[in-house]
Input
Amino acid sequence: MQVVQPVLEAENLGVRMGGTEILRDISLSVQPGETVGIFGANGSGKSTLVKALTGVYPYTGHARLFGAEVSRPRTVAWSRLGYVPQQMAHGGSMPASALEVVRSGLISGGHPFGAYGHAAKRKALAALDAVGLRHRAKDPVAVFSGGQQHRVLIARALVRHPDLLILDEPLAGIDRESREALASALHAAKQEGITLIMVLHEIEELEHLIDRNIHIEDGRKVADGAFREGTHEIDHVMRRIAGTNATPPASGAAITPPASKTADVTATPPTSGTTNTTATPQSAYVTGVVQGGTPNRAEENND
Output
């Protein structure tokens, strides 16, 4: 019997920044083809978790992508990963066109010129078509709305046809048209067998895609199980956090747990000790044109 290798694993994973423990003792495994929603209050550690799992933040314990330890970046098949941050860094002043941004997703350590040529252009146009923006390919992203910029980031992640796609708050602050286009693109990705991991506060248009929910509270995993559309399986967790008299959200409503009590700290990665502090040059596309890789206070308060 053939053993299926998880696309992503964490084992006793922890993150400490500025002397404060942000994540601790998190273990999980995601199988090929799963669609996983990661839920939790602001500051609970959701975004920190996915950034540690993708090598952006240093960590203790173990984080593996496609069976390879993330702290050993040269062993990781980064071309199989697509990552979509919460927002486009410097998007308002970026002179690049949508096509150029999406083509940049084809650049990797093994293919430094992957964004050039007719084949790269065809792939980028197809990815823009998947998010409904092919007709805006030549327009600078600086003139796009926040929702449209987010769709460009989705296309940039999809252009490499990843096996695993990680999205950080994909519905946050975007318009209805972009939400619907995003949901359509992710539905198509799921049908193709792509594994999806999404950090979420709101579910709405994406609810029908979710197979499993993981709930993070104060830096720890407190729930992990099957998600049933319309039933909000994590209600019991949120009621426990908020108190027994809390009223669960109505069906179809956005899931917004109460604010976390996690300390407000300036996130300064450690530079010594046993923590895995190795940088991740092969995953530079994660932290490049669309994502600043330096932890900061505002980011920690909104993860």
Notes: The longest helix spans residues 176-191.
